[in-house]
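Budget justification note: compute hours in this period were largely spent on complex prediction jobs such as the one shown. Inputs:
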Amino acid sequence: MPVTRTVQAPLPRDAKISFPQFASYGIAMEHLVQRGLDMAFVMPPRMTRRTLEVGARYSPDSVCAPFKLNLGCFLECIELGADTLIQTGGTCRLGYYGELHEQILRDLGKDIRFVNFAACDFSNPKTFVDEFRQLKPDLNLKRFTAAAIQAVRMVNAIDEVDALIRRRIGFVGDPSLLDHIHGRWLEQLRHADGLKQIEQLRRSTIRTIEALPIDMPRHPIRVGIVGEFFTVMDPFSNHEIERELGRMGVLVERWMDISNCLYHYRGRKMLPRIKGYAHYDMGATAMGTIDAALRYAKAGFDGIIHVKSAGCTPEIDAIPALQNISADYRIPILYLSYDTQTSEAGLQTRLEAFYDMISMRKEAQQ
Amino acid sequence: MRIGIPRALYYYRYGALWKTFFSALGCEVILSPQTDRAILSQGSRYAIDESCLSAKIYLGHCAWLLDKCDFIFVPRMADLGRDKEFCLRFRAMPDVVFSTFRDEGVRIVSCDISMHKGKSEAAAFAELGKKLGFKKHQTLTAYLLAKQAEQQQAAAGARKLEAALAGPELKVLICGHAYNIYDRYVGQPVLDAIRNNHAVPIPADWMDRDEAWQAAADLTDTMPWMVNRELTGTAVLLKDRVDGIVLLSSFSCGPDSMTDEILTRRLKNIPILTMTLDGQDATAGMETRIESFIDILHLRKDGTVCL
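Corresponding output:
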C-alpha cells in the first residue's frame, strides 16, 4: 500500500543517500547531500549495458527508457550500499516514476528508504526545503542554502564547460585530450569547496580548453540537437551522439541543459516566438524543443537531430511542428528514438547517412 | 456555423457537454462516424508512428471532418486541479491537429481547460463562446444547459452500474479509458467477447467520478492523472463486487504503461487481465484470452468451467 506523502520519517544520521545517474550532474547532488545535509552520498556507478538490462528486466514493458535506466541505477546503488534513494517529480510520466520505482524495489525485497520529491514544485524551491526539513528536522538552513547555491553554481559550470567542449570536440587534433581535461575538471569539481573554488576551477578549465589549438573550416557543418530532457542530456542514453558527430567534424549546438531548462526557462517568451508552429504549452520540454529547432532553422544550420526516448509523449507531439519547420526552412531533421534495444551499429549508420546528406547539400549550396 | 466534433478521445467523456453547448448556441454539430478500418488507417497515415493508437484514431476522425465543417473543435485540456491532470497528449492536441493538417488548411476552434492557473471550466467555455462571436449571456446559458446534460449522463451511468452489480451473472470490470471501451472498432469487440462468454462487462465510467477519484488515495499516492485516478478508485471500490478486472489500454499509452503496473502489483485477491488494444483486425487472439480469463473467473467463483 502507498506510503503517505505528507509525513516523511526523519533519516538516521548514517543514511547512505543515492540518486540515479544523470549526465555529470551527480556531482552537484553529492555536494548538496554531503555539505547541505551532512550525510553520506553513494555516487552511482557509471551506467553500462548491465544497468539497462537489469532496469528493463523489472520495469513495465512500454514505459520510457529513462525509467528503466533509473531503476537499473537504483539497483546498482543498492549493491554499493545505498539505503536511501531519491527520486524527483516532473510534469510528464516522470511525475509517477518515484512511486512505481519504490513499489518495484519493495516487491524485489529491497529494504530501503525511498524519498519521493514528486509533490514538490520546481517553481517554488521552498517545497524542496520543506521536504528536506522532514528528512532532517535539525537541518541547518544557512548551511543547506549555501550548499544548494553552490550546487546550482556547479550545475551551471558543468553546463558551460560542456557547451564549450561540444563546439570544439570536432576540431581539436586529438579529442582524447578534451576527454582528459573533462575528466579532470569533473574530478576537481567534485572536491571543490565554496563558490570561489568552483569559479576558479571553471575559469581555469575554460582557459585550458580555449588554449587548445583548433582547426575549424570557415563554414563548418552545423547541427542543432533538440529533444527530450533526459535522453538528450545523458551521453550514455544517447550513445554519445555529440562525440560521434564531433568525430565527423560537425559543430554541435544544444540549447537543452539543466541551466537552460530549469533556471533560465522562460516559457512565456517562447510561445510568441513559435506562434506559427504552436499555440499552447504542450507540457514538459516540447516547447523548448520547438523553440530551439526554430532558432537553429532560422540561423541557417545544416541539420537538426531530434533525440528522445521511445514513446515520449510530449516529444512525439512536438514532431508535427518540427516537420513543418523542416518544410518551411528546408532544413533536414533526423528523428532518433532510443529504447533499450537501440544498437550501436544501426545508430551509426543513420548518423553517417545523415551526415553525408547534409554535407552534400552544403556543397551543392556553395 | 458547422462545428465538427471528432468521435474519439474525450468525446466519450465530455461528448454530452460539448454537443449540448454547441447546439444550444445554434451551431450545427457534425459528429464524425464510428471508427472503422478506413478512419484508423487514415489516422495512422497522418499520425507520428510512435503515437498511441487513440491519438491515431483521433487524427483519422479529424481527417474525416476536414471538408465537412467550418471548424473542428479540439479543446486543450491540461488539468482540472491538483492530481487532476490529463495526459500531456491532451495539452498538445490542438497543436498536433494544427501542425498535422496545416497544409490542408484546417480550421480549429479550441478552448483552454487548465485550472492550475486559477481558471475555471466555465471561464474556458466563455472564452470559447466569445471566439465564435456569441454574446456572454448566450454562452452562459449554453454552458449551464450543457452541464445539465452532462449530469444526466452521469446519473444514467450510476443507474446502469447498480443494475449490473445486482445481477447474478459473472461480472467483469473494464478498467480503461472511455475512448477505448466505447470505440466500436477497437474496444467493443472486447466487450462483445466478454458477453459471448456469458459474463457482464461493466465499464469503469459508470462509477461516480468524484467518488472514484477520492477512493484512489487508498491505493496510490502521487498519481498525477485524473482519469487514471478515477480508474484506480473504481477498481478499489468495486474490487469485492466484481469477479475480475480487465485493464484495457491502447497501444503505447503513456499513463497506462505505469498505472496498469501499479494496479497489478497492488490490487490483491482479484484476477486481472491486462489487454492492450493495437488496432489489428484479427480478434482470435483476443477472444482466446478473454475466454480463458472468464474460465478462470468461473473456476474461482463456483469451481466449474462453463462450456
